[in-house]
């Protein structure tokens, strides 16, 4: 939708006309083929999400889901897996009657995903189901819930069998990581583009499906009072924290290859920076928003080795205590080398070289096994130019806007007021908005939104290839720098599980006369 000028009075008639008709909310008919249908991602996220959409006022009802994967399972055996997954990962939402109905839409085909011969059955099944949908337009969605290494091979087979471009409304959903660096991301993409057009490709970064992440755009551009102050004239610095208390959770093999920079910085943190720093889009259409995202990513200042020496801190967790439980160090995790130098913590002071943000430091940090789980954007404004109130020693906190993305979804504005009484003391107070308290509901899980958008054909919240490449351009030098450092085995671990990370990260802030919002 292109942007409209707001010139209408807000009266009840206008609001009524804005009610979204139920049919518009509903997804169209679809067949979803889940590659790796019995795998971890399918069980934890996809199948429970699809059930949730089905249960929630039947937002989907005209559909088939085909689990496609290695385990040799009958339809019924697969349905038991789906049933158990929904029960385990959506327990509050589980309803025996509804699940039986949902399961009647579920099929399974067992296959060696790298053997084209095994795809004949899939072609037959798709053709059979197409007949059930008769003339209705339906979406054919391929969900790649498999390890990234085999995605290209699967796509080649789909292409050979003419199951991609030639099929009406076919779409492919890919999970991160999109390559392991810029070169491999381009190669992977070239391969995908042989089979699909960019408009058919849905690259999931589940952070973009979080209501509170999308709310960054709403907050900035649905209000007129914040945007004029959202720039280098008023903002002192911004902190972005993606802190996790969990470890690597049985994903040792993956994590040893990825490390924190590929796992979180290259995607989730980059998306948060882009939404906080982008210019207003000229409308709320996918490419208009994605244009702004890529523009800001391209202005991230690339860091060289000399700069990184003093402005990047990486680390790895050792044993410690998280939320009252003793936990092992990274090197003791399953499938992790005892000499691993893979980082589980990253912090940096970075800059965006454009007109709006020149000279404003963005401090970003993320890590596993930190003191608590929180994703937060902290915007600190400059101090007022003169101290008119109180004595010199009276504290006067600068204004700050704190957007808590999770777990307590919140927006807080910090300001100074007069403390009651006969003295002239300034005092810091908060204005607070909390999602759950205000709306009485938690925001919806990220996958729910993203899967609905894909079925409906809305690409807004999916990463575009040029953005993926811009993100790699920024993080590739970081990985290269880290890999080329003369590491000593004894350098790691350098922070205890359950703390706020390596001491050097606090130094990074102290040097600038600042401090992290949370630290030990
Ligand atoms: C994933 C990472 O993309 O995001 C995980 O691979 C991480 O390592 C997860 O734990 C965090 O997601 P969320 O939604 O819990 O913040």
List the helices and strands and how they pair.
Blueprint: H1 12-17, H2 22-25, E1 29-35, H3 40-55, E2 63-69, H4 75-89, H5 96-103, E3 106-110, H6 120-132, E4 138-144, H7 151-160, E5 170-175, H8 182-195, E6 201-204, H9 211-221, E7 235-243, H10 252-277, H11 286-298, H12 305-311, E8 312-315, E9 317-322, E10 325-327, E11 345-350, E12 362-367, E13 374-381, E14 400-406, E15 410-418, E16 426-434, H13 435-439, H14 446-456, H15 465-484, E17 495-497, H16 503-510
Parallel strand pairs: 1-2, 1-4, 2-3, 4-5, 5-6, 7-12, 9-17
Antiparallel strand pairs: 7-13, 8-11, 9-10, 11-12, 13-14, 14-15, 15-16
The protein binds 6-O-phosphono-beta-D-glucopyranose (BG6).
Concise summary:
The protein is α/β, with parallel strands linked by helices and 520 residues long.
Give a structural overview.
This protein is an alpha/beta fold and 520 residues long. The protein has helices at residues 12-17, 22-25, 40-55, 75-89, 96-103, 120-132, 151-160, 182-195, 211-221, 252-277, 286-298, 305-311, 435-439, 446-456, 465-484, 503-510; strands spanning 29-35, 63-69, 106-110, 138-144, 170-175, 201-204, 235-243, 312-315, 317-322, 325-327, 345-350, 362-367, 374-381, 400-406, 410-418, 426-434, 495-497. The protein has 2 domains: 27-175, NAD(P)-binding Rossmann-like Domain (Rossmann fold, 3-Layer(aba) Sandwich), CATH 3.40.50; 208-510, Dihydrodipicolinate Reductase, domain 2. The longest helix has 26 residues, at 252-277. It starts with 11 loop residues before the first helix and ends in a 10-residue tail after the last helix. The model has no long low-confidence stretch (mean pLDDT 92). The site of 6-O-phosphono-beta-D-glucopyranose has 3 residues, from loops.
């Amino acid at each position: 939708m292109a942007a409209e000028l707001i010139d209408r009075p807000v009266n009840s008639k206008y609001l009524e006309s804005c009610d979204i008709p139920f049919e518009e909310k509903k997804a169209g008919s679809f067949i979803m083929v889940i590659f790796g249908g019995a795998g971890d991602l399918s069980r934890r996220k996809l199948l429970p999400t699809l059930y949730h959409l089905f249960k929630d006022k039947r937002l989907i009802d005209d559909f088939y889901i085909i689990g496609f994967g290695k385990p040799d399972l009958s339809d019924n055996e697969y349905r038991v897996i789906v049933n158990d997954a929904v029960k385990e990962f959506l327990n509050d939402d589980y309803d025996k009657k509804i699940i039986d109905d949902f399961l009647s839409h579920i099929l399974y085909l067992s296959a060696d995903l790298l053997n084209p011969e095994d795809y004949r059955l899939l072609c037959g099944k798709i053709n059979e189901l197409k007949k059930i949908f008769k003339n209705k337009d339906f979406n054919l969605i391929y969900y790649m819930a498999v390890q990234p290494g085999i995605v290209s091979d699967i796509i080649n087979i789909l292409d050979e069998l003419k199951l991609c471009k030639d099929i009406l409304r076919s779409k492919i959903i890919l999970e991160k990581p999109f390559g392991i660096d810029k070169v491999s991301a381009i190669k992977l993409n070239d391969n995908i583009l042989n089979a699909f057009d960019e408009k058919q490709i849905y690259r999931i970064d589940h952070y973009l499906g979080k209501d509170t992440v999308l709310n960054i755009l709403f907050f900035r551009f649905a209000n007129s009072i914040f945007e004029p102050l959202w720039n280098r004239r008023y903002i002192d610095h911004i902190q972005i924290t993606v802190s996790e208390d969990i470890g690597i959770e049985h994903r040792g093999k993956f994590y040893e290859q990825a490390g924190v920079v590929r796992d979180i910085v290259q995607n989730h943190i980059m998306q948060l920076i882009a939404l906080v720093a982008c210019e207003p889009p000229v409308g709320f259409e996918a490419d208009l928003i994605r244009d702004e995202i890529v523009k800001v990513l391209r202005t991230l200042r690339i860091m060289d080795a000399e700069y990184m020496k003093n402005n990047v801190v990486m680390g790895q967790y050792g044993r410690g205590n998280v939320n009252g439980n003793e936990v092992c160090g990274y090197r003791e995790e399953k499938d992790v080398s005892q000499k691993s130098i893979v980082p589980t913590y990253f912090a940096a002071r970075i800059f965006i070289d454009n007109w709006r943000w020149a000279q404003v430091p963005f401090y970003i940090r993320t890590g596993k096994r930190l003191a608590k789980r929180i994703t937060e954007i902290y915007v600190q404004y400059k101090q007022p130019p003169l101290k008119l109130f109180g004595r010199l020693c009276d504290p006067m906190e600068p204004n700050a806007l704190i957007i808590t993305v999770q777990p307590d979804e919140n927006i807080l504005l910090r300001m100074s007021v007069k403390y009651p009484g006969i003295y002239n003391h300034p005092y810091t107070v908060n204005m607070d908005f909390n999602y759950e308290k205000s709306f009485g509901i938690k925001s919806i899980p990220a996958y729910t939104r993203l899967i609905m958008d894909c079925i409906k054909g809305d690409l807004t919240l999916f990463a575009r290839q040029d953005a993926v490449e811009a993100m790699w351009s920024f993080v590739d030098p970081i990985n290269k720098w880290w890999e080329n450092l003369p590491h000593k085995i004894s350098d790691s671990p350098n922070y205890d599980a359950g703390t706020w990370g390596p001491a050097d990260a606090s130094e990074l802030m102290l040097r600038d006369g600042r401090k992290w919002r949370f630290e030990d």
